[in-house]
UniProtKB/TrEMBL annotation:
Gene3D superfamilies: alpha/beta hydrolase. Keywords: Hydrolase. The keyword Transferase does not apply. Pfam families: Esterase (PF00756). The keyword Magnesium does not apply. This is Alpha/beta hydrolase. GO terms for molecular function: hydrolase activity.
């Protein structure tokens, strides 16, 4: 089937007014082929929503998986972020972290569940994020285990405070993570310093497994870039949606 066939997709833009953030937050909603509001669908919530759609090509991947790979239809919600405050919202040491995570769980989830036929249980909600987006996804799931248990982590930025928070948890057996990191991410410069993402992900994996989390973990040739993550997204989606 041609790429053009996969590119025919339905994406709706929404906005919500967040009392926690004191501003509007924009969302992108992917509706699957054959969408029917009388049915119900699993849902994938993505941090860095704009990048997941533009650089991760997640809607195109979704169309192909549904049309050709016999994956049941699902909805995708991309939550957009202002890159200038991204670290403040996604990192647990950020000054907007509490506001953002509260917006996500208390405003975005109810908005989507009130307007779209998404399934309302942890089995059918998936969180996805790259770098700090993977990190904040894990923190949201730890904060609200009644909402989330499944996480796609693409080169998660598990800095020291995040590792400490994971270590402080007694039981994380409700969590299931699909983790991937690129072997060329061992000396990556971010806005808060230079990090060895391979080592950080190995440490996070060990801490999570010690507390009972189920982990599918992969290290592959790759850099801290969407060129790497884009190609890994389909396997990550299939892992939770098959």
């Amino acid at each position: 089937m041609t790429d053009f066939h996969y590119l025919k997709r339905t994406i709706i833009k929404e906005e919500i007014e967040s009392k926690y953030l004191g501003e509007k937050r924009f969302l992108r909603i992917y509706l699957p082929p054959g969408y029917n509001e009388l049915l119900s669908y699993p849902v994938v919530y993505c941090q860095d929503g704009e990048e997941f759609f533009n650089f991760g090509r997640i809607a195109t991947h979704a169309n192909r998986l549904i049309m050709d790979e016999d994956i049941d239809p699902f909805i995708i919600v991309g939550v957009e972020v202002n890159t200038s405050v991204r670290t403040e919202e996604y990192a647990p040491f950020g000054n907007r972290f509490e506001a953002y995570t509260s917006c996500f769980t208390d405003e975005i989830i109810p908005f989507i569940e009130g307007k779209y036929p998404v399934r309302r249980n942890t089995e059918n909600r998936i969180l996805a994020g790259d770098s700090l987006g993977g990190c904040v996804s894990l923190h949201i799931a730890m904060k609200k285990p009644e909402l989330f248990s499944k996480i796609i982590s693409l080169s998660g930025a598990y800095y020291g405070l995040s590792l400490d928070i994971i270590a402080s948890q007694a039981d994380l057996s409700y969590l299931s993570l699909y983790m991937i990191v690129g072997l060329q991410e061992d000396h990556y410069t971010t806005d808060t310093g230079v990090y060895n993402f391979v080592e950080l992900n190995r440490k996070a994996k060990a801490l999570l497994e010690e507390r009972g989390a189920k982990i599918a973990y992969f290290e592959k040739d790759g850099k801290h870039l969407w060129g790497f993550w884009q190609n890994e997204l389909p396997d990550a989606l299939v892992y939770f949606l098959k």
